[in-house]
Predict the structure.
Amino acid sequence: MIQEKLNQLMNDVTKDLKIDNNSVILSNRPDLCDYQWDGCFKLAKILKQNPIEIGNNIVSKIKKHPNYLSLLEKVEVVNGFINLTLSNEAINTYLTKMQTEDKFGMPPIEKPNLYILDYGGPNIAKPLHVGHLRPAIIGESIKRILNFRGHKTISDVHLGDYGLQIGQVIYGLLEENKKIEDINLEILEELYPKISKLCKENEDILKKCSIITKELQDGNPLYQTYFKKIKEISLNDIKRIYKDLDVSFDLWNGESDAYKDIPKLKEILKPYSKLSEGATIIPVKKDDDKKEMPPLILENSVGAYLYATTDLATILKREELKPDYILYVVDARQSLHFEQVFRVAYLSNLTKAKLEHIGFGTMNGKDGKPFKTRNGDMLKLDDLISKTKKTFLSLKEDNDKMDEDDINKIVDSIIKYADLQNNREKDYIFDLEKFSSVLGKTGPYILYTYLRIQKILDKENNTFNLTDKIYNEQDRNLRLELLKFTEVIDKASKTRMPSYIADYLYQICVCLNTFYQNNHIDGLEDKIKKQDWLSVLLLANNLVKQLLNLLVIKVPKKM
């Protein structure tokens, strides 16, 4: 909001100079100024003049601008940069707008886009493990950020429910003479890893499982009956865990839902397809490729369809919804797969939407390797949550006396904030003890800060009424931090990076704690100062709660 006003000011005073990228930036020297403008250096090359001389001329124009006095306390040229310091009036005017306007003054979007978000992606018949955590909460967070920014979204879990793992589980059930009524979650969780291991050791078993998969896809009645029961049991457990994580989906479609569109897809792709060693492939290599780009396999040599086929059929189906974007929140290691799928989709005009792979790194243990149990299996998501809860309860003697719902919310914040504070494209180490602490950049620190400030607010009449005063450095720093809200949301929305929200949330809390430690409100006799400070704290806590919601984190009653 205020940055846009400053940009407009700079555009007004430099409009005759025709300079590109005329935006102010946050100062990297907050002790000198609030914002800076570095266009003098670009103009010096164009005009063949000294940047300081150019800067002095622009400063003179700024001081004559009608918005100067309402926006700025000071403007000066330092080493060729134009330094801009906001006035108290401007700061408090915009803070008041944030408190009184919808979405804290976030400007509306001229043309909202429709986003389909494909995230979650669990496989039926396999328990959710730590590898499923990142796509679920990154996808949910991006969805909430886009919605808050004003876009429309449709979320789809896109279940892996028709692949080889189903053929393997059906093979195992038949081998062990399990009837439909015998199947339960425990049997499925035990069976899949056992048969998967056998397939790696025995080519014949792998081939049998592949044939079962193909016959299932072709509609074999017996296999379909087993499949429906497996899906029902598995999906109930998946939904339970997602509900606990506060992750929701508009659509619960899977690969199996895409199968009815495959005949139409194959017809569309016929001009681009060719046979190779019994498989149907589509070459996607381009002349300017810098790395190897293998063809997309549409149908393998035994006639079964692969992930790429169902992904393409799903794109075809999603086109009925007329999306502007389709975002795939999937492990970065799948980048080649999505590059192949996207190239075929664009080549054949399957969709008008822009396709994006929102890749992310792995969540690792202290050894730098992906989380696994002692026997080498991926740690189940339920077990990670239980382990985190146990660690939190052990940190302080009174923790186990807290309300169970509050404990669960704090544990939830430990896991989610630990994940979302990182650049999603990078791997990160999940240090359980570190992220469970109420000190440092952690979920509990954020929640503790919010509750500490809320305790002050609960004692008072929470009305919002700001004067044009600012009382000290800690007070000003907090107010300036709050003004960054709309820019941070906009940046997170455009980059699909929840980490910008998480980092900003932490910075607000640091400012809040510094303010709290240096400014005592209880017993303050100056009523105007007290009301000003309560107003600032009220806005700050409202922002913190909103930002937590964008990170899929709920606030406990106390901790």
Q: What stands out?
A: The CA atoms of residues 329 and 342 lie 14 Å apart.
